[in-house]
Amino acid sequence: MPQLDYFCRKDGKDLRFGYTTGSCAAAASKAAAQMLLEGIRVSQVELMTPKGILLHLPVEEITSGEGWVSCAIRKDSGDDPDITNGILIFSRVEFSAGSGISIEGGIGVGRVTKPGLECPVGAPAINRVPREMITAAVRSMQEESGNFAGLIVTISIPEGERLAKRTFNPRLGIVGGLSVLGTSGIVEPMSEAALVDTIRVEMKQLAASGKKLVAVTPGNYGEDFMKNVLAADLSGAVKCSNFVGETLDMAGEFGFEEVLLIGHIGKFVKLAAGIMNTHSRYADGRMEVLGVHAALCGADRELVARLMDCVTIDDALDILEAAGLNEAVLASVMNKVDFHIKTRSHGDYCPEAILFSNKHGLLGMTPGAKEMLTKYLHELEGKR
Question: Are 34 and 92 in contact (CB under 8 A)?
Answer without folding.
Answer: no
